[in-house]
Amino acid sequence: MLNKGPQLSLLSFFAKSFAEKRVFYGYKTPYYDQISFDKILNKLQLDATYKPGNVKIVDVYPSLGIFSSVLNQALKPLDHIMLEPHLNYIKALNELKEYLPNSNIKILETDPFKWISFFPVYQNFDLFKNLDKNNLNPQLLLHANLNYPRGEALIMQWYGCLINRNWVQQYGNVRMLVWCAPSTAAKLVAKAGSKKRSKCSLVAETFSNTKLVAVSEDYTDSVISKDLIQEHQPVILPLYRHPTFTHPNAVKDLCLIDIHPKYVDNIQDLDAWDFVTKQLFILANNPLKAAINNLGPGAYDYTKETGALEDLWEKKPKDMTKEDFNRIAQVITNWPFRPDILADLSELESHIA
To answer: Where does it live in the cell (predicted)?
Structure first.
């Protein structure tokens, strides 16, 4: 059974940290709220996957380390590796490390926006490799605070790693807990037919199970719809209103998403799938019969002649399900005159094999 939350004394520790004049570098961060964090832990059900004392946590941009401390106290990790480039946060994390002497926190003063920053993190990771296709890796967990100006771009790159099974995902289905802007989360969990439907939500739906876990109380219906709130039932985080806190905007516009990677083996050609989805979403509001030639000259004639996609002819890409896109990608993969880029990739892969 996991601890429900860190020691109450951490409340005073972080209250002091918030009261000081901190530089937040444009990041948003949850403030320490025991009740909310207990609700989040209940929702995450970490004990269904992880055994305390037998897990490594990789922490990307932990900032003040507030929710990092919650995970640390709950999971008692073998290693808690924090990648943080900002001097003010590094100072705060070193203070946290001293405050939690048995935390196994290791601080790497490096910028995780650069892929090379993860090379030291991978040391000994082979010991924790778990390629069980149907379950999460029970010994690796990634936590990140990407609620900052460049954060959305980095999240989208991480979802790309789910497709290619690289980066930390080469070690199995590594669960990711990511703080981001509500607007980013809404894009990722948008359903087929939604105005926010795009390729990123299709990728999230196809290669992961992504859930909204928490959102700050200042969210608006125009960003996180009532339907999404009803479906995901996120914890609503109260805002921090202490009179001595000089950065009130730093605790607003927050969302926590829980990403469970999925191994996908029903897509015949990932390169074709990637090409098809990218090209069709350029014309997301057009019916397939009007958008299909975006896949290459002759695509309309080929698909109409074969009749393989006849039932999708009037459907718009933004309204299509992941199964619809899988079918289209398979048809294009088998097209004798498919675009040269796909033929070249196929030939290259055969030479490599």
So the answer is: Mitochondrion
For residue 184, tell me if it sits in a domain.
Answer: yes
The domain in which residue 333 lies consists of 270-351
State both tokens at 278.
């990218």
Determine if residue 209 is labeled as part of a ligand binding site: no
H or E, element range at 64: none
* Residue 94 annotated as lining a ligand binding site: no
In a domain, 1, yes or no: no
- pTM value is 0.90
- pLDDT tens, residue order, the chain (353 aa): 455 444 547 877 877 776 665 666 767 777 778 889 999 999 999 999 999 999 999 999 998 899 999 999 999 999 999 999 999 889 989 999 999 989 999 999 999 999 999 998 988 788 888 889 999 999 999 999 999 888 999 999 999 999 989 999 999 999 999 999 999 999 999 999 999 999 999 999 999 999 999 998 888 888 999 999 999 999 998 876 655 555 555 667 889 999 999 999 889 889 899 999 999 999 999 999 999 999 988 999 999 888 989 999 999 999 999 999 999 999 998 888 877 666 544 443 443 33
Which residue, among 343, 337, 346, 345, has the nearest Cα to 299 in the 3D structure? Answer: 337
Q: Are residue 73 and residue 25 in the same domain, yes or no?
A: yes
111 is in an annotated binding site: yes
CB neighbours of 154 closer than 8 A, spacing ≥ 6?
113, 146
In this structure, the answer to whether residues 220 and 292 fall within a common structural domain is no
54 is in an annotated binding site: no
322 and 241 housed in the same domain? no
Integer angstrom CA distances of residue 79 from 123, 167, 223, 260: 12, 19, 37, 21
257 plus 306 within the same structural domain: no
**Does a structural domain hold residue 22?**
yes
